[in-house]
Each structure stands twice: as structure tokens, then as C-alpha cells.
Design a protein that fits this description.
By secondary structure, the chain is mostly helical. Helix content is about 70%, strand content about 0%.
């Protein structure tokens, strides 16, 4: 009997190989020690955090490059566009790594379904983050400039430089805020087929 595989259905004959990395043993040992009865969930969270850290580097790197080239933070629109581009690049990386490393046992759903769910969770996270950043980057820029002026009286940045620093600080806090949302929503919706 042959299995018909539609684009939305998983291929039942396909094996689910798990990606192995040099840190897997350390993560497993730490998870057993800290997680006790919930070691697998702790392991997933640690891997999710690793993947998120890589995503953060991609995200903030893209924002810094864009703000220093084609999208200087002279207005809210440029700040939000740079933030959104960085976010999308990070989400693409995060989806791939979470599917093959954090949740390799979550392939009973098709890639299309999980990517759609992951994208929905991510768009909600992006909205949360964009609201946060647009409401705080100027204040963080002013505060950091005041602190830096206190340390160096001759420090007098241009407004665009103050906004770059403020955007970076707001982005760091925004990533931390959205990390919790992304983990919980993806764990219990996108990857809810794992035990």
C-alpha cells in the first residue's frame, strides 16, 4: 500500500534525524541536574535560548548595519523598518534551528503548517516588540546620552547617533520580552505534538 503525501501532510516514510552539536551533551547534563522530572522541557528551553541568541545576533547585526547604511534612525519609520528586517531574518534562522535541533521530534506536522504557526507567533511578537521599541528608543537614547555626558563632559552625539544607541538598548529589552511569548506560544501551539 502506498502513502499519498500532500503538501500539508508529513511524509510517514521520512526519518526524523536529530541534529547533533558539540553542546548537546552539556545541555543534556545540565537539564537532568536542573530539571529533574522536567529535564526534557528544560533541555528544550536551553536549546530555544541558544537558537534565540543566534537569532539575536542576526537581528541586532542587521539593525546596526541598516541603521549605519540605508536606514539611519532619523524617524520612527526607519527605526521600525530596520527592526522589522532584522526580526524577519532572525525568525527565518530561528524556525530552521528550532525545527531541526530544539524540536526534532515535532515533525508529525508538515513544514508548511509549522512555518505558518511559527510565523503567526512571530508576527505577534514583532508587533509587541515594535510597539515597545517605538515607544522607548528615544527615551533610552536620551538617558544613555545623559549618562555618557556625565562620564565625558565633551560627549555631544548627533540625534541620529543618540537614536541608534536608544534603538539598540530598546531592542535588547524587546528581545527579552518577546522571548517568553515566543517560547510559550511556540511550545504549546507550533510544537505541541511533542511530549
Amino acid at each position: 500500500m502506498s502513502h499519498a503525501v500532500t503538501p500539508d501532510a508529513p511524509d510517514p516514510t521520512r526519518s526524523h534525524r536529530q541534529l547533533k552539536t558539540p553542546v548537546d551533551g552539556l545541555i543534556a547534563a545540565l537539564s537532568l541536574k536542573v530539571g529533574r522530572g522536567k529535564a526534557k522541557e528544560v533541555e528544550r528551553f536551553i536549546k530555544f535560548a541558544f537558537v534565540g541568541t543566534l537569532g539575536f545576533v542576526i537581528d541586532i547585526g542587521a539593525v546596526i548595519i541598516l541603521q549605519n547604511t540605508v536606514l539611519p534612525p532619523e524617524n520612527d519609520q526607519n527605526v521600525l523598518i530596520a527592526n522589522s528586517v532584522g526580526f524577519v531574518l532572525a525568525v527565518c534562522s530561528n524556525f530552521i534551528w528550532n525545527r531541526v535541533w530544539t524540536y526534532p521530534d515535532s515533525r508529525s506536522y508538515s513544514v508548511r503548517r509549522q512555518l505558518t504557526q511559527f510565523a503567526i507567533v512571530s508576527v505577534i511578537g514583532l508587533i509587541i516588540r515594535n510597539v515597545w521599541i517605538s515607544g522607548t528608543y528615544e527615551q533610552f537614547g536620551e538617558l544613555s546620552t545623559t549618562i555618557l555626558k556625565g562620564a565625558n563632559a565633551g560627549y555631544a552625539p548627533q540625534l541620529v547617533d543618540q537614536n541608534k544607541l536608544g534603538t539598540t538598548i530598546a531592542l535588547v529589552f524587546g528581545v527579552l520580552i518577546v522571548l517568553i511569548w515566543n517560547f510559550v506560544a511556540n511550545r504549546f501551539w507550533t510544537y505541541n505534538d511533542v511530549e
